Amino acid sequence: MFIIGIHRRSGTNFLADAICLTSRFSLPVPLYEDYLLQYSNMLLKYTQLTAAEQYEKRFSERPNAYTECRRLMLRSIGDGLLAFLRSYIPDGCRILTKTPDPWNLNNFFPLFPDALLIIIVRDGRDCVESAKWAFPGRSYLYWMTTWAANARTIINFLKEVPPQHEGQLIVTRYEDLLSDEAEMNRILEFIGCSPQEYPWNEFRALPVRGSTFFRGEKNTLHWQPVDKTKDFQPVGRWKKWSWWLRWNFKRVAGAELVALGYRW
User: Comparing C-alpha atoms, which of 262, 87, 245, 250 is closest to residue 171?
Assistant: First the structure.
C-alpha cells in the first residue's frame, strides 16, 4: 500500500497514522518515507537499454514476447524494491509506505503492477503557506511553482491510468479526511478493512504530527505527536494572504487548483 502526496505538508503523515490504527499495516521503520519513484527513470532506462542490447535479438520473430520480457524485467525490479521495504516491516503486517511528492508518478504501475495506491491532495494555498514556514529559505513563488508542477503530474497521471489498474487507485483530499468520516470509511473499504471494526474514537483523537504551526511546546518543526486542541485549524490559513499572494497563486497554479476540485 503506497500513499503519495501532492506536495510536502499535504497530510501523508495523518493518513498513514489513520491507516495504521487498523493494526494490519506498518510503516517501514526507520525509513517511514520511501521515495522509490524519485530516481525511478534510471530503472526504466536500465531496463530499456539492457533489453534492447541483449534480449531483443532473441525475440526477433516474437515482438510481443519481447515486450513481455521488458515488462517482467521491470516488474522484477519493483518486486525487489518491495522486498527491501518488507525487511523493515514486522512479520504479519502489510506494507504501508508514503512519499510526500509525486515525482515520476507515471512509473508507479510499471514497477508495482499489483500495488494499491492512495494519492492525497491538499489545497495548494494551504500547502504553500505551510511549506513556506516549515522550510525557511524558499519564497512563496517557489512553493507555488512546485505545488503546481506536482499537481500537473497527478492530473496527467490520472488521465493515463490503464484500465486494468483503475481499481487499484483512489484520490482523497486532506480536507475531506478532516471533515467527513465517510471519506475514511471509503479508504478502509479500498484497503480491505472493515469500517465496523475500525477504532473510530482513536481516529477522532489522533494527535497532530509534523505540523508547521501546531508544535506543542517545541519551537521547531518535529514529528512527535502533539494532542489536538481547538487551536489546530489547518484548513484556510491562506485566507490571511494579501491580494498580491492570492493573485500570484492564481497566476501560477490557479488552473491546477480548479482541476483538482477546489474553489476560489
Answer: 262
Q: Model pTM? A: 0.92
Q: What is the mean pLDDT of the chain?
A: 92
User: The C-alpha cell of 104 is what?
Assistant: 515520476
Cα three-residue angle 177-179-181, rounded to 5 degrees: 65
Nearest-angstrom CA–CA distance, 225 and 82: 28
Under 8 Å between Cβ of 89 and 95 = yes
Q: How far apart are the first and last CA of the chain?
A: 33
Higher-pLDDT residue of 136, 29: 29
Q: Minimum mean pLDDT among 31-40, 62-71, 189-198, 211-220: which range?
A: 211-220
CA distance 66 to 217: 59
Q: How far apart are CA 155 and CA 157, in angstroms?
A: 5
Q: How far apart are CA 240 and CA 118, in angstroms?
A: 30
Q: Residue 155 and residue 94: Cα distance in Å, rounded?
A: 28
